[in-house]
Description:
The chain is an all-alpha fold. The protein has one domain (31-336): Na+/H+ antiporter like fold (Up-down Bundle), CATH 1.20.1530. The chain contains 15 helices and no strands. The protein has helices at residues 2-45, 51-75, 83-104, 115-123, 127-139, 145-171, 180-193, 195-213, 219-229, 232-243, 246-251, 253-278, 282-292, 298-306, 311-336.
Amino acid sequence: MLASAALQCKKKIAPGCKIAAMFASVIGILFPVFAMLALGVFLKKSRLLSDAFAKDLNALMFHGALPCMLVDSISCAEPAGGARETALALALATLATFAAAWIFAVPCGISRAARPTFCQTAFRSNNAYVGIPVLALALSGRPGGEAGLAVATLALAPCILLYNVLGVLVLVRPSAGGSALRRSVRSAAALLRNPLILACIAGMALLGLRISAGVALPSPVAETIRLFGKMATPGSLIALGASIDAARIRGAFHGACVTAAFKLALCPLFGAAVCAALGLDPMQRFIVVTYLCCPSAVASFVMAEAMGGDSGLAGASVAFTTILSAVSLSLGILLFLP
């Protein structure tokens, strides 16, 4: 009788314990993000980092470390069945979020000048640094978990390319002067010169060569690229923390709230709807929703700073969505984990 009562009690508290455990796990994964942001703020306050150095560090991340990270992560992806459909669902949900953000930005109180920055923070997820660790944690030890993680890694490659193409397209400033054709050509040239776009193209090319012909970069070259790429996340977060200004954050608070609504609520809803429409299996659905529940990528701030966007809005959005993603990711895991 006592055993039966204990079992019933266990059943009652299990869902609550599960939510608490998921929430604690997600907080543990997000903690290094907050720590690096706080380190950037501390270094700036203590005057160990100047404004000029923070800008130079951001430029180094944009032109060097981030491209290396993209080349490494894309070229090393492993083939997996179901990755194509998963990538398609991610792409369609991303495009739907991009379109909704562009259309409803101004009605939601975002200025026309800040709309390009708002759009990329609304659709661009921090999948490499947050999404993959969360998926690895959630799928560890589960039936089909290893295969699911392989699908998630490979599906991310074309998604990264899409993120960067859309991000550059929305932030690039049309060239002034000359005919419409010349302005279009100049803008296209600026797009193709973007280091993140070039890195995605190079990574996809190396991935294709490795899968089809077994050709890979020499080990010393690949390791150098990987080592430089490891600077991207901590370096970008420190640069973001050093660039945080209380007045700019307060001024961008409304925009950051709107970004969080689009990024952490609307984007996952689009993903779930697309998965249902495409008939994806539960594992693929879980991967897509988890990626879309992630916070805005720190690369959103890096690109906004480097390409003349609203870096205040981008920085506030990254920080705010990172805090709230602990809730969105926990709910996504609870509702969609197969």
